[in-house]
Every structure is written in structure tokens, then in C-alpha cells.
Specification:
This protein is α+β, with helices and mostly antiparallel strands and about 120 residues long. The protein is about 35% helix and about 30% strand. The radius of gyration is 17 Å and the shape is globular.
Length: about 120
């Protein structure tokens, strides 16, 4: 059986606040190490049926960057939810909220429907 590891390293400042996040994983070009300003990790526990979450952001993450992180995460979650469930009705509701979030935070232009 093949195995691949994902490594996440968080540097803390003197107040134990995240100052840097690095992650490393296999890629088509080999092992790559990258820097991030924030991360959101959710793991669904098979026994408790609960979600274990780790949300970390660095001190230099700007509000506009957090808005973008949340927007793209919500967009991705919506796509993942649809792929896994094929629940088109609820996925469309989720897409509508994601569009609203993107417009409200000015990440995307308002759609003609909302003008």
C-alpha cells in the first residue's frame, strides 16, 4: 500500500501566537514545501461522528485575506458537498450564499440578479 505524508509546521512568537505556517506534501514535481498565512483543517472522526477542527492564522493575515480564504473555502465545500451527495437543491442554496458572501466582501462583482 502506498502512503503519503502531509507535514504542517507552525512557528509561534513569544506569546505563542502563530507567526509562520509551512506545509509540505508530495506533488507531481516531488516533495514541496510552501508557506501559508492561514489554514483550516477538518477531520471527521469515524467513531464519534464529530469533526475535529484546527483553524490557525498568522499575525500578518489581513481581514481581506481572511475574507478570501473563507470565500474560496465555502466555494470548495459546496462543490465537495455536491460531489459527495448529489443534493442539487441544497448545493444551490449553498452556492447562493457563497455568491452573496463574495459580493458582500467585494471579492466578486455583484451579479445582475442582485443589482
Amino acid at each position: 500500500m502506498k502512503k503519503s505524508d502531509i507535514k504542517i509546521e507552525v512557528n509561534l512568537d513569544e506569546k505563542n501566537t502563530p507567526s509562520q505556517i509551512h506545509w509540505e506534501a508530495d506533488s507531481p514535481n516531488g516533495r514541496e514545501r510552501r508557506e501559508a498565512k492561514a489554514m483550516l483543517l477538518s477531520l471527521f472522526d469515524k467513531d464519534t461522528l464529530d469533526t475535529f477542527k484546527i483553524d490557525i492564522w498568522t499575525t500578518d493575515l489581513q481581514v481581506a485575506e481572511m475574507d478570501r480564504l473563507v470565500y474560496y473555502t465555502l466555494q470548495s465545500l459546496t462543490n465537495t458537498y455536491y460531489t459527495a451527495t448529489k443534493n442539487e437543491e441544497l448545493s444551490n442554496h449553498m452556492r447562493s450564499f457563497v455568491r452573496h458572501f463574495g459580493e458582500y466582501t467585494k471579492i466578486i462583482e455583484p451579479s445582475k440578479e442582485t443589482e
